[in-house]
Amino acid sequence: MKQNPLSFQLKLNPEDFLPATEEEKQSQIIMRESVSFWKDGMRRFVKNKVAMVSLVVIVLIMIFSFIVPAFYPYSYKEQIKGANHLGPMEYSEEEQARIDAGESVFPHVFGTDNLGRDYAIRVMMGSRISLLVGLIATAIILVIGSLYGSIAAFFGGWVDLIMMRIVDIIYTIPDILLIVLLSFALKAPLTKVQEVPGFGWVGTVGENLISIFIVFALLYWVGMARMVRSQILTLKESEYVTAARALGVGNGKIIKKHLLKNCIGTLIVTTTLQIPSSIFTESFLSFLGMGVAVPLPSLGSLASAALNGINTYPYLLFIPAALISLIILSFNLLGDGLRDAFDPKLKH
Amino acid sequence: MSEYLVDIKNERLSFFTPAGEVKALNDVSICLKEGEVLGIVGESGSGKSVTAYSLMGLTAHPGKLIDGSLYFNGHQIETMSDKEMRKIRGNEISIIFQDPMTSLNPVYTIGNQIAEAILLHTDKNKAQAKVRAKELLELVGINEPEKRLKQYPHELSGGMRQRVMIAIALACEPKLLIADEPTTALDVTIQAQILELMMELKDKLGMAIIMITHDLGVVASMCERIAVMYAGKIVEYGTAEDIFYEPKHQYTKGLIRSIPRLDTKEHERLVPIEGTPVDMLNPPKGCPFAPRCDACMKICLREMPPVTNFGEIHYTQCWLNQKEEMEKGAANE
Amino acid sequence: MIKYVAKRILLAIVTIWAVGTLTFFLMNMVPGGPFLSEKAISPQATAALEAKYGLDKPLMQQYLTYMSDALHGDFGDSLKQRGRTVMSIIQMKFPISARVGGLSVLVALCLGIPLGCIAALKRGKFLDSLISVISTCGIAVPSFVICTLLMYTLGVNLKLLPTMGLTSWKHYIMPVIALSFYPTAYIMRLMRSSMLDVLGQDYMRTAKAKGVAGFWILFKHALRNAILPVVTYVGPMLAYTVTGSFVVEKIFVIPGLGGEFISAISGRDYTLIMGTTIFLATLIIIMNVVVDIVYKLVDPRIKLK
């Protein structure tokens, strides 16, 4: 008779061989808790240190450019007499005299520019403009691009064909050439528009800024449109949508529950990554002198203006240059973090 | 030297994932003689493929062999360097993967990919390799081999691609062919053709085959020995007769009950195995199958069952078999 | 294949026509004219000049005349640089821009591809993190920042390299670095992620199972698949180097086509604007077609349709 030697080593009771109850069996099944897509994504996102740091940086820059200027003692167009080209933390003679007299004078943290304007507030205003351009232009791109893309995808057939041909054409147009031209060409009509009652705000915002928005609205939505279209097409043909349809789920519910939910991750990521690229383009245009109008500063135009004095006043160049790089970097990293968290298909 | 071609003893292998250690193989032993066909059966994640890959030194990152010895044809696999392993791979051991649609490199021609294996392991020059590649395509039953050699994978059907994979695997006349669910991704009619082809080639070339599948029907028709795996353990091992006519383990019994048969009576239903497979990150303390087992006993939830032997080959790891054997022993005394 | 080329050429012609038309009308929306800024000229002389170049005619007629001339390969004379044809200006300026741009593309490919591969292979290790940091920063820093930074450190402070003009090989270094910075960083990222993707593919396992050696697995089986996204990016990259050169040419005072374009716009040199736009658009479109054909050569699955 063969017997397993092991059974002697173990102390076995006859009781051990009694059938186990259902509860006892269940207690052995340890399942990982199932989490929803959003919860899971948020958890991953919050855990991503780089993305969280970028988010904090972005919030800080937002405060710096939207809230701080309201409390700042100088204005971005105020030219302080005798305060031309002050270095960081320096005071003009007049201000020095006031300090000596016991008055408190707010320091020029980043110095002043050639016209005696406080540079810190100009940088704040500049980053405000850059951020605004980034956000608004992206919003325009998002709306136009996703509408166009989804219309093309939903209708399909020749509508899709013609719409995508148009996209192809716009895509191959060298964008900067047209941007340069457009921003020149749009200036005149926009100046005229200001005289029409109710359009006075155009002057306040600046013709150049608006023409930048128009340029974005005309040219930059194509990438978004392509992305949305392909996303919807893939989803439309995916088996779970077919399955939902086979189960008799209505069109509205399919769009809401399946298409939107699956698209939104990619959409958020693409949008976040579009923001830095819009800021990038704006700074590029401003640097070439085709961005916002004087005296309104943008980070690009500040850098461009500082280029001439690079030998003597390098900080005038480095401050806006560093800030614009920081803004773009933060948005890029935030976008990457969002992608890692919410777009499992793109994850590596 | 061993009397066996393949002799895996007490293999333990774990994947060290960020979420924790996954014990993919837990004390797995397998042996196989030259020219034999072994079937490894089990559901997804039970460790079938991991066993086969480790024999080829193809364990994917972050998997690590922890313990055990892997012997193959005079080589001690676990001690070999990557360079030595490369000489064996594709030469003495070959493998056919599950999904022929993704297993061929899309940017090279069929001819190039078959010739690559020949050029690597033989002294043949390019022209000779091409002749051999053509022979191989004929061998695996592909018509117009001359034309196919110049085609790219995307120009062939799934069944055709799997034949190409087999041709690559056979390029250097291996001693052992591992087939990792070779028919899962194919149509049913093509499945039968591929299996038939494999058996035919086995008879012609005399190689041993390890057939990994979750389809009991496939192993029944092909394999001399069968290992049933569950959660990284071999729960029952035996000849095809043992497994199909005298299954001892509750899981094996369940598997057999769940396949459709021609001789079932009219109102007899197929019996599924209730429950879900174990979460390998949090394996139960006792027998992994216990929570799904109809005959689960208190001890099953607490301790791993030891091996119960039923003769030369046939064994199980199940407390129920232990209990029966002990009762038999008590009755005899 | 022939059908594909025909289709592409047709689309290219439509695009070039669209660009040309758009440019023409936009340009004429810009207030002012080519001869208004020259105060020394009397109104009569201005009128005479405008009549000479046909600028007094209705816009639609000007447009049709220009288009039919352009179809015959005649892009007219520059309005501001008297006595020179638009073609001769492009012929003179373009090679300068092309040399800087071409070198930058070359640098971007030669650095980006290997570094991206290394990052993918050393995934999670120090080298990977280092390359990732560099590439992330490279994408975030606008080219004018790079230019000015380079100019300040290498040119002004250390006086290692000349900051203006393009007369010796040393003059090329800074513009090329500045222009290749972004595409290099982008290619590194692209290459890393596509390499990681390819390394996880089933056919890599097949190659390994065949006993192919580590280096060959990478070189033969992985690289050709992983490089596909980079090939797709080459088109946009060319467009970028062409347009990016606007900034670089401005900062380093390089007498290239970009600077010519900007000054043509501010000087309302209509014929030169049109000529440059159509030339650059055609160039980019041709490059895109070439890229598509190269893509087809690398990836046999692509059917040109």
Provide a descriptive summary of the structure in words.
The complex is a heterotrimer of chains A (348), B (333) and C (305). Chain A contains 15 helices and no strands. With 348 residues, chain A is mainly α. Chain A has two domains: 37-78 and 124-346, MetI-like fold; 80-116, no CATH class. In chain A, helix 4 (49-71) packs across helix 15 (314-342), helix 8 packs across helix 11 (207-237) and helix 12 runs antiparallel to helix 13. The longest helix of chain A is centred in the middle third of the chain and has 37 residues, at 119-155. Chain A starts with 5 loop residues before the first helix and ends in a 6-residue tail after the last helix. Mean pLDDT of chain A is 78; it is low at 1-9. Chain B has an eight-stranded mixed sheet with strand order 6-7-8-3-9-10-12-11, with helices on both faces. In chain B, strands 2-1-4-5 form a four-stranded antiparallel sheet, covered by helices on one side. By secondary structure, chain B is of the alpha/beta class. In chain B, strand 4 (63-72) and strand 5 (75-76) form a beta hairpin. Chain C has 305 residues and is mainly α. Helix content of chain C is 76%, strand content 0%. Chain C has twelve helices and no strands. Chain C has helices at residues 2-29, 43-52, 59-71, 86-121, 126-140, 143-157, 169-199, 202-210, 214-226, 228-251, 257-266, 270-298. Chain C starts with a helix and ends in a 7-residue tail after the last helix. At the A-C interface, helix 7, helix 8, helix 9, helix 13 and helix 14 of A face helix 1, helix 5, helix 6, helix 7 and helix 10 of C.
